[in-house]
Structures
1.
Amino acid sequence: MGRVPRPRRRIPVGAFATMTDTTPRTDPHLGGVHAVDAMARAVGVARAARLTARPNPWVGAVVFDAAGTVVAEGATEPAGGRHAEVVALEAAGERARGGTLAVTLEPCSHHGRTPPCTGAVIAAGIARVLIGVEDPDPRVSGEGIRQLREAGIEVTTDVASDMVSDQLAPYLHQRRTGRPLVLAKMAATLDGRTAAPDGTSNWITGEEARREVHLMRAESDAVLVGAGTVRTDDPQLTVRSVEGPDPLRVVLGAAPAEARVRPCLEWSDSPESLLDHLGEQGHLQLLVEGGAETIAGLLDRDLVDRLIVYIAPSLHGGTSGRPLIGGSGATTIAGLRHGRFVDVRRVGEDLRVEFDPRTGPNGEEH
């Protein structure tokens, strides 16, 4: 068994993207269950670990017995705890022998806080393994797959890989680039204004959109704003509307002594060095919440991986309101920066638009 053919359709990358896949494959060892359906179940299991597994990846695993019946599942435990495969295999016990393991990420093959998962898979007597994506961590990077195959286990890779890559996008990006995935969040009226001329901006969007933003904060390791935003809005940047951990708060520049964002990391060096620093600390996702000049500067440096814009059903009118993105802007139509809409959907009374600024409409990289 080798790789499952990947569909041409691209899956949205983002905190709330819909996870679907159309890879045409049925595994006869799963009692007629579609292999992608098996992986989709593992993806669903992994969601429970999204806010607790970091800095480890939030992995899901499902064990099928030799007859193709689901007998156990597991998700990554908090740091220092068991990995998803071990949780599922220990729950399955002897029922795993001769069965199939569906796991979203390649099993680890090295000693870290826990022993290698490949040893647990082999010891459990698993006959075949379905893997969503290969782990780009240099300590793994295909070694887990090699060990399983050398032990006589049938391994199929790239099962629903777009679906899994979407769920694990921050982890995969950080392991490949050394930097966290950068999401820039904005909210605006239909005519693109983020605040009135007097600076007032609360609240442009509705409660449902604000709740999603708090979830994005909880899913992010760090949240970033410019010093101007701190002086103007005095944000807390904490998680409130949902259950989840508060991110590291970062200010580009200096925050006033009495600012509510404190304690925070104040950064006076380049944005590139900040991303390097956060990546070295193991942070997987950075959420940028403004302001317009900060986001414009990051876009100019090609440091934003996704723009997420919430558009309210309201109009500001005129030309004096504050724009969505600052900077000097394009002087001619030829100077427009093109990208690709990844996802558009309704959130309460607002629209959520996810935009990839690095990829053109036809998939070409800038």
2.
Amino acid sequence: MENHKDISDNINRKSRSIYTFIICFLLVIISSLVFTHQDQQKPAPAVPSTTVEKEIPAVDAKQPEKDKAFVPKNTEPRQQEKKDKVAVPKNTRLQQQKKSITKDKEPLRKELPETNIKNQTAETDIETLEPAEKPVPKIPTSEKDASIKEDNEAADWKLFHETMGDDNGWKLIEDENGVAIYTRKTSASDIKAFRGVTEVEADFNTMVAFLVDGNSYPSYVYLCNKAKILKQKDDSDFYLYSVNVPPWPVKKRDSVAHSRWHRNAETNEVIMECIGVPKLVPEKKGLVRIPLLFVRIVVTPKSKTHVGIIFEGVADPGGLIPDCVSNFCIKQSPRSTLRNIIDKRPFEKYTGKKVSFLETPSP
């Protein structure tokens, strides 16, 4: 019996423990369900924000409808402008623009004096609109301009006599084949003056008639290719144009010269004086105008059959030829010119020709 009681006690004890476990498990489940339901009903905690929100003013429901439709002040003129633009047609808009332009120009028109375009002269144009231009120098054509040209020539003749009148300072640099060549410095140019001296077997009158003729220059003058008398008063006074052709690569040169001849009654010498007048004739394309030219020729009767000739001068070839090169080649001009007279004897064609200003002097 006792065993049976023990067994029944054990069974009761185990059953109670099982029941207790089951009840505790159910209580735990029920409590968890209750807590979760409560958590879902609670509101979410507020999260602090870093941005500052602007407060929007509350709209009063009692305000009239006009106040509810809020329109910024700046938009009202723009809307008005749009209405005006739409209302104005294109033609009237162009007219308004023209009126505004004319209004802007009215003060300018008041400042300027009103002038008649047809009767407006060149002087008013220059005074009101453009500055006066410098006058262009004229080529001498009238008597007044001719007198100015003569005054310029008078200054050149004065310089010629100052340069060529002094007979001192000549230095002999060559004496060959009957021609003596001298040079010296002058105040007219950095290029030296040259002098060639020789004696030719010839008649005095024939030699003078030959040298006076400007058209004969190409037959004996160094590098002269062409010569033409432009204007001539008489046998003793004329203007001559000539062209010189130097060796390549030097460009061709031309010159305009005024030559005057006279006879010295005391020494029976015939003297030619020549100056360059480069502005007398316009320059020609492809030719370099010689800017400075002084030439002096003295013909002296030595005897009935011999004549002495002195050929001297100063010449600036112009262009890009350095003065040192011109001075180095300076002796070529008097040497070749005088040797052509001696060797070619072109003066023989003038035998018996008379010269108006010349009377044969006694030796």
3.
Amino acid sequence: MGKKSRRLLKKIRRRRILIENTIVFLVLLFIMGWIIGAHRTGSESLDRPYGGKQVVDTMAKELLGTLQNVEKAPVFSYDENTRKLVKNLIGDFEANPAMTKEEMGSRIKEIKDVNYRLGTFWEQGMIYWSYLNNDYEPNILAVPEGLPEDSSLAIVVLGYQLAGNGSLQQECIKRLEYALELHDRYPNSYIALTGGPTAAWNDSATEAGKMGEWLLEHGVLAEQIILEEKALSTSDNAIYLTAIFEEQYPEITSLVTVTSDYHQRLVHLLFYMVSLEEKMERGVDTPVVIADYSNVVKGPTFGNITTQAQFVEILWLDEKE
């Protein structure tokens, strides 16, 4: 082999070594970035603050962008193992709503290791659930300002058990008075009424129907009233009303919920998680709760952390059999 050939061979070898080293460096850099990103997803994101009238689905919209390159496995494909992991997460949070981001993050990581998208759903749900029980307080002071002035806003009034004969009870009437006050401030908004047949001796009466009659008697236009007359629970309220908005009222994007103060945390939680489920499972945008207005009722424990956990477990575990 001549001198020129040997020099050329050495140059080729040096260039190949340089290329190989560069590839190794880039691979290592990618792995380090992935590890750092995974750590942030598993823990730091649980620290994100919420407050005031901030639209709570911002996080979900950001989340969808991060999922584009993730395998499109079904979000809610529970098996025995994932069901147990999610149940453990819910149980831990029920026992200690102030659990740290590290404690919550380790549970979520266990789910992500089995089903990344399912783990991400529960991560986002737990962030908001933690906010509701640690930082949020129902608005009992005044009509919220700064809400949309057009028909993109719906005032959602949660029903209340009818009297035996099918008439409205005082607590429900109080909710309607608050809704009327809101509608006077936002006259272009819809009023969505949700609640099914709950009268012991009157099968034809529904909570939504009776509330609608009351609003008509107090001057609200029929075309501004939306009725959902099947719901028999708060989870039904969220599921059925979200479906009506999606199918019949696409112009509605924002919700302000009206119910009793003890009920608001459960309402916020279920409407948020139903909306997040629609976004992650079907890519559908549904209206989100941006504010609330509550009448004060002292005493009831319905809607506390135990009730919240029961509803979440029934809706996202028992019904996923």
